[in-house]
Amino acid sequence: MQELLDKVSRCACTVAEALAELKNFPAEMLLCAHLDHHRRLRTGVPEVVYGENKTAGQIADILKKLLQFSPTVMATRVSREKGEEVCLVIPGLVYHEAARMLTAPMEEKRQGADYGAGLVLVLTAGTSDIPVAEEAFVTLRCLGNEVERLYDVGVAGIHRLLSRRDLLDKASMLIVIAGMEGALPSVIAGLVDKPIIAVPTSVGYGTGLGGIAALLGMLNSCAPGLAVVNIDNGFGAACMAASIVRQITGRTGGL
């Protein structure tokens, strides 16, 4: 909308042309969905497609419309088969297999760069937690955040975490992802003075109850101020982190 108003002020487009572009703003009805194009202006995060129970055709139809209003789009929980099918329909999209996400191309970030304020660090207790972590990582990147990974540093080998104190200290906030008993967020919360979002995963044996044990462990953490999101919800953790970073850095807007 800001770009459109700027075009009108510079006479780069007519008022009639601007009205034509705004015809379906802020909402647009499709056969399979009612799109909320105004969400980014209200919340800093655009509407994101949840692909779990949608067909490839439905995902493609929605993304085509969203791309008309924003160069950056996201679809979460998309299987590889659906992702490949959508990429054939919309050339230029990228399928992130580990994260199970579809996005527009993202600018490459230099690993280990001196980012300053605003760096989000995504950590996992184990390798099996990486799919949830990658969902958080890709989401944060799409929302314009500086982000780094630190994977497989769980409490069974705590020296692996302690050897990267430099990275813990550099981050403005942390997303900590763990299954099993879910202990890693509590440990890290006792080491740093940064906001921490804990994400329980469904990784674990029988009494882990599909992530319930990790969730309850995190909710009952003895470390005060620890925020906890739903099981396997890397996307929700990333959106919360992006919102906090916007407040820390004074950024406006998500993309």
Description:
With 255 residues, the protein is of the alpha/beta class. The protein folds into 2 domains: 2-103, no CATH class; 120-249, Rossmann fold, CATH 3.40.50.1970. The chain has 11 helices and 11 strands. The protein has helices spanning 2-9, 15-21, 39-43, 56-67, 80-89, 130-142, 159-162, 165-170, 184-189, 212-219, 234-249, and strands at 27-29, 34-36, 49-50, 74-76, 94-96, 101-103, 120-124, 147-150, 173-178, 196-200, 227-228. It has a 5-stranded parallel sheet. It has a 4-stranded mixed sheet with strand order 3-4-6-5, sandwiched between helices. Helix 4 (56-67) crosses helix 5 (80-89). The longest helix is centred in the C-terminal third of the chain and has 16 residues, at 234-249. The chain is globular, with a radius of gyration of 20 Å. It starts with a helix and ends in a 6-residue tail after the last helix. The model is unreliable at 110-115 (pLDDT under 50).
Helix content: 25-40%
Let me know the number of strands: 11
Major sheet summary line: 5 strands, parallel
User: What is the average of the pLDDT values?
Assistant: 86
Alpha carbon gap, first and last residue: 13 Å
Strand order, sheet with most strands: 8-7-9-10-11
The parts where pLDDT drops under 50 for at least 5 residues are 110-115
Q: How much of the polypeptide forms β-strand, as a percent range?
A: 15-25%
Domains (count) = 2
Describe the protein's topology.
Layout: H1 2-9, H2 15-21, E1 27-29, E2 34-36, H3 39-43, E3 49-50, H4 56-67, E4 74-76, H5 80-89, E5 94-96, E6 101-103, E7 120-124, H6 130-142, E8 147-150, H7 159-162, H8 165-170, E9 173-178, H9 184-189, E10 196-200, H10 212-219, E11 227-228, H11 234-249
Parallel strand pairs: 3-4, 7-8, 7-9, 9-10, 10-11
Antiparallel strand pairs: 1-2, 4-6, 5-6
